[in-house]
Amino acid sequence: MAEAHQAVAFQFTVTPDGIDLHLCHEALRQIYLSGLHSWKKRFIRFKNGVMTGVYPGSPSGLLVVLVGYMSTTKYAKIDPSLGIFTKLSTHIPISKYVTEEGQRIVGGVLVGTGLWITVTFVMRNILKCLLSWHGWMFSRHGSLSLRKKIWLVLVKLFSGPKPMLYSFQSSLPRLPVPSVKDTVRRYLESARPLMDDEQYKRMEGLAKDFEKNLGPKLQWYVKLKSWWTSNYVSDWWEEYIYLRGRGPIMVNSNYYAMDFLYVIPTSLQAARAGNSIHAIMMYRRKLDRAQIKPLMVLNTIPMCSSQYERMFNTSRVPGVEADVLQHVNESRHIGVFHKGRFYKVWMFYDGRLLLPREIEQQIERILVDKSEPQPGEELLAALTAGDRVPWAKARSQFFSRGKNKQSLDAVEKAAFFVTLDDTEQRYEPDNPVQSLDSYAKSLLHGKCYDRWFDKSFNLIVFKNGTMGLNAEHSWADAPVIGHLWEHVLSSDPVRLGYTEDGHCKGNPHPNLPGPQRLQWDIPEECQTVINSSLKVAQTLADDVDMHIFPFSDFGKGLIKKCKTSPDGFIQIALQLAHFRAKGKFCLTYEASMTRLFREGRTETVRSCTTQTCDFVRAVMNEKATREEKLKLLKVAAEKHQDLYRLAMTGGGIDRHLFCLYLVSKYLGEDSAFLKEV
Asked: Which PROSITE patterns does the UniProt entry name for this protein (predicted)?
């Protein structure tokens, strides 16, 4: 094991002749390489911090400014220090220490650097002002007005060359706070289709009273928070919507991602794990070096990248009242679960990342391990699947010292978690619905004890080589983990590939230390808590009624040809389906992202609109003509798109209402309107 090799780096024996010292050169070499890797990483982080801090300026830009300034002042015969040293010399005898030529050079460098900093600051703030305009989003799709063209050119001009992942963070605008009047009006508009005239009149009265009396007082506090923080919603959203939830995060919060449905690169579980784990670690390396390009709308408009920061080395730690997100800067291992046993697998050896075939070698060693789980070990992860309070108390009582703490640290501080599932899942063309139902349910909750749901994400590799992800939600939203998953799926069969017999390319390592089996000492009292959590989780999992089927009749291409938004089309179809099944409309949530703003996460699009209801009623009305239905569909889809644009540009209502409600609770104010909302 890696720790064992380092622990015996030196040995000594006391003899009558003195101390006999023995050094293990291989172990010392590994320690040296590990330290070298750590210092390289620190240097890269420091360099990237500097590069991001001065963006859209750059060191090369500084050099150009300095050379240009010094050349200009020399040609014009102007003092490059602009008289700074002349003024200083009246108080300090500078000429004793610095020659006249030295004063010219130092002065030129200082003034030139100041000029460069000023230009960078101006460019950054101009870019921030440009990005605060969102009129481009409300123009007709496919049309490009002169104003929009000029704006895009200016954004491109002030964005600077070759941005890194976090380059635009300080240039992104803050999420604006809508007015109480606008939020109340939009809320009433969204609630109208769900209420009869009497209910709506009552709600209208509550809304007007709130807008006139309590609303302005709460709004003042929300605005104060928006001036003081980077984003007036995100920290409260993370805390109260995610971390303060005391129910199970399995099913209720965690989500999943599937593998290719129609591509099967290999059926070897260890080989698929080897390539995928290597691809994930390569992605982490790019993330650490900020080499991933920021997501850009229209290849020009940057989106916030802050959610990437906690993708790796992160775990949700349970608390009695609220959980916390634990993130470590460096983690050189992963946690692995197989048939009730936990392992710690080092990802580095000889100062480098393990190659895919070497990772496959480590996974093979785990798969052939015949050892039995220790008492309580097999079901241990059920603690992360049940209610949070029992897990928090058990963690404090049974996992705060000794081998349990060391093993739990190995899991929680791992780069990510891997489950080598002993079941087989795959899309079967002859049995599409049942196979996809089983596959999705396995990714969502598994057996309720074979995923560590607190980790930022779990890579799940099934016995037949199919794989997927299960991701914890509090640290980021799905598009961020989706970016990682796209990288893995594109790297796995194409860039990395497999041999003819299905193994990873390359050769096993002859001297690679094996995985470390984690040791636990779980008393019967703790096992009782584990079993209780498992029962809660299994009840929840059994309550999940999931049905998935492939739809191949048409896709978004045909919808776009009809000049309709695919998203709007699907949301309207959902409303129609619900009305046909239930005979009524219901409040509907669709998430949009607000990453056009700094630290933006999501906003709600209330997709049950009056226009959509009009279309649904027309479809259900046999007397309505095809032309009438089509016209109403277009109107409903356009309304939905307008709501989506408003949500993306800070004009949504639900996050604003959420913050107003929290402030009312902090102030001890009771609001009938906010309670109803």
From this structure: ACYLTRANSF_C_1, ACYLTRANSF_C_2
User: Could you confirm whether 333 is annotated as catalytic?
Assistant: no
Shortest CA distance to 332 belongs to which of 29, 45, 30? 30
3-state secondary structure of 286: helix
Please, which residues have CB within 8 angstroms of residue 607's CB and are 6 or more apart in sequence? 571, 572, 574, 575, 588, 589, 590, 640, 643
Q: How far apart are CA 581 and CA 257, in angstroms?
A: 28
Dist. CA 99–CA 106, nearest whole Å: 10
Q: Identify whether the C-beta of residue 383 lies closer than 8 Å to the C-beta of residue 394.
A: yes
Q: Residue 20 is encoded by which pair of tokens? A: 């006999």
639's CB contacts (< 8 A; 6+ apart) are 609, 611, 612
Say if residue 265 is preceded by a cis peptide, omega within 30 of 0. no
* Cα(85)–Cα(411) distance, integer angstroms: 60
Lowest mean pLDDT among 58-62, 174-178, 468-472: 58-62
pLDDT of residue 1: 40
| Collapsed DSSP state (helix, strand, coil) of residue 548 | coil
Q: Are 27 and 9 in contact (CB under 8 A)?
A: yes
608: number of Cβ within 10 Å: 25
Examine the pLDDT at 623 and tell me if it is beyond 50: yes
Distance between CA atoms of 160 and 58, rounded to whole angstroms?
Answer: 9
Q: Convert 78-92 into a string of H (helix), E (strand) and C (coil).
A: CCCCCCHHHHHHCCC
Strands 417-420 and 457-461: parallel
pTM more than 0.70: yes
Which of helix, strand or coil describes residue 317? strand
99 token code pair: 């020659």
Q: Which two tokens stand for residue 93?
A: 């005898």
Q: Specify the pLDDT at position 563.
A: 87
Specify the 3-state DSSP secondary structure of 134.
Answer: coil
- Supply 522's token pair: 């779980």
Nearest in space to 447 (alpha carbons), one of 380, 374, 514, 501? 380
| Count of CB atoms situated within 10 Å of the CB of 136 | 19
Greater confidence (119 vs 288) lies with: 288
Give the model's pLDDT for residue 5. 42
CB 34 within 8 A of CB 275: no
Backbone angles phi, psi at 261, to 5 degrees: -90, -35
Residue 559 to residue 675: CA distance in whole angstroms: 40
In degrees to the nearest 10, what's the CA dihedral of 167, 169, 171, 177? 160
Phi, psi values for residue 607, rounded to 5°: -80, -5
Residue type, 93: P
Q: Helix axis angle, 59-75 relative to 100-131, nearest 10°?
A: 130
Catalytic residue among 333, 338, 473, 656: 473
The top-scoring range by mean pLDDT among 52-66, 159-173, 207-221 is 207-221
What is residue 3's predicted lDDT score, i.e. its pLDDT?
Answer: 42
239 touches 469 (CB < 8 A): no
Q: Nearest 5°: phi and psi at 570? A: -65, -45
With vertex at residue 304, the alpha carbon angle to CA 303 and CA 310, rounded to the nearest 5 degrees, is: 140
| C-alpha to C-alpha distance for 576 and 204, rounded to whole angstroms | 27
Q: What is the mean pLDDT of the chain?
A: 90
pLDDT in tens, 575-609: 999 999 999 999 999 999 999 999 999 999 999 99
Assess whether pLDDT exceeds 70 at residue 443: yes
Mapped onto helix, strand or coil, the DSSP state of residue 98 is: coil
CA dist., res. 129 & res. 565, Å (int): 29
Torsion from C-alpha of 556, 562, 565, 571, nearest 10 degrees: -80
> For tokens 């799940």, what's the residue?
460
